[in-house]
């Protein structure tokens, strides 16, 4: 809908708010609204309507993994208070085929949501609340720290696969959880604070890097379950796949069309390498490579997002 600008004195312009919208939000004379500039757009919102928003969800029908993703998603979106209701004490974990305690699940996941605490716990509900505000000034440092932690995880995974180091493989899970804290916090800061045209592409970058770390975690699990030392060729291909990450890191902080081309070339040569050796490798190792190789598709989308940020 269009609104005509009214001039008041020399330096003030006014527009009217839609009456229906004001009635829906019970706005009256003297009330305040939040006005946020977004490029050539102005976002008008009821003050505090979402900044201190609340979510109330019945999670009884979810499984273990879906519950964790729900909590993570609500935290990232920016909710400051989350009530989770449930009619049973446990949820199924499809990967392990076991029932797991729902209260413990919630408690463990909150640890991965910086600033959020479990403030109330009853037999049929839990309440999570943000006890500290997200500071937008932290974002750049958090993002760079996240990049460093991912680089460290790549190095450890390559070494663990080459040496069949079970302890180092097991540590990838812990590194994954630590990185998840950073990706959760970064995404929350973006959704609550960053009001600009680049915000969706920055958020996509964080999301895809989080997924990349998931691929590394799953690869470490599969290599541990294999209980044999990987063949040199499989270890070499794993190192090649993970080599896309330092290329993207360089690209993110020092934009270069040359690095974009290198990432694209790496994807094609690595996939060809897997196909060439498919009949020579044990099927278990081929499955491990197939899973991790999917991460190269993430880097294609990551380069797309980075180019959008550049131009």
The 3D shape can be described as globular
Termini separation: 31 Å
Show unreliable segments: none
Main β sheet profile = 4 strands, mixed
**What is the subunit arrangement here?**
single chain
Helix content: 55-70%
Instruction: List the strand order in the largest sheet.
Output: 5-6-10-9
Number of helices: 11
The radius of gyration is 24 Å
| Helix-strand string | EEHEEEHEEEHEEHHHHHHHH
Quote the beta fraction. Answer: 15-25%
What is the typical, i.e. mean, pLDDT? 91
What does this structure look like?
The protein is of the alpha+beta class. 58% of the residues lie in helices and 15% in strands. It has 11 helices and 10 strands. The strands form 4 sheets. A 4-stranded mixed beta sheet has the order 5-6-10-9, with helices on one face. Strands 1-2 form a two-stranded antiparallel sheet. Strands 3-4 form a two-stranded antiparallel sheet. The longest helix has 28 residues. It is globular. The two termini are 31 Å apart. The model has no long low-confidence stretch (mean pLDDT 91).
SSE topology sketch:
Elements: E1 6-8, E2 12-14, H1 19-24, E3 33-38, E4 41-46, E5 54-58, H2 64-77, E6 81-85, E7 90-93, E8 98-101, H3 102-110, E9 116-121, E10 125-130, H4 139-163, H5 166-193, H6 199-226, H7 232-242, H8 244-253, H9 257-277, H10 283-293, H11 295-310
Helix pairs in contact: 2-3, 2-5, 4-5, 4-6, 4-7, 5-6, 6-10, 6-11, 7-9, 7-10, 8-9, 8-11, 9-11
């Amino acid at each position: 809908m269009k609104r005509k600008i009214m001039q008041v004195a020399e330096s003030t312009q006014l527009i009217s708010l839609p009456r229906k919208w004001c009635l829906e939000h019970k706005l009256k004379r003297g009330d305040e609204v939040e006005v946020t500039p977004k490029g050539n757009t102005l976002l008008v919102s009821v003050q505090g309507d979402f900044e201190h928003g609340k979510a109330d969800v019945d999670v009884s029908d979810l499984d273990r993994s879906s519950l964790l993703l729900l909590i993570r998603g609500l935290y990232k979106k920016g909710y400051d208070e989350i009530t989770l209701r449930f009619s049973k004490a446990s949820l199924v974990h499809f990967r392990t085929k076991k029932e797991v305690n729902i209260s413990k699940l919630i408690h463990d996941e909150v640890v991965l949501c910086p600033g959020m605490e479990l403030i109330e716990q009853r037999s049929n509900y839990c309440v999570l609340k943000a006890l500290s505000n997200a500071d937008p000034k932290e974002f750049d440092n958090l993002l760079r720290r996240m990049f460093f932690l991912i680089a460290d995880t790549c190095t450890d995974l390559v070494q663990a696969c080459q040496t069949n180091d079970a302890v180092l493989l097991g540590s990838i899970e812990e590194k994954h959880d630590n990185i998840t804290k950073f990706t959760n916090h970064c995404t929350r800061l973006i959704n609550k604070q960053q009001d600009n045209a680049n915000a969706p592409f920055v958020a996509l970058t964080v999301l895809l890097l989080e997924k990349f770390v998931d691929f590394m975690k799953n690869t470490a699990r599969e290599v541990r379950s294999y209980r044999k030392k990987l063949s040199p060729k499989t270890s070499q291909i794993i190192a090649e796949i993970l080599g896309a990450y330092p290329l993207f890191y360089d690209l993110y902080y020092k934009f270069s069309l040359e690095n974009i081309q290198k990432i694209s070339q790496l994807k094609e040569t690595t996939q060809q390498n897997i196909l060439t050796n498919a009949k020579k490798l044990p099927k278990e190792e081929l499955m491990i490579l197939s899973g991790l190789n999917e991460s190269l598709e993430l880097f294609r989308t990551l380069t797309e997002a980075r180019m959008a940020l550049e131009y």
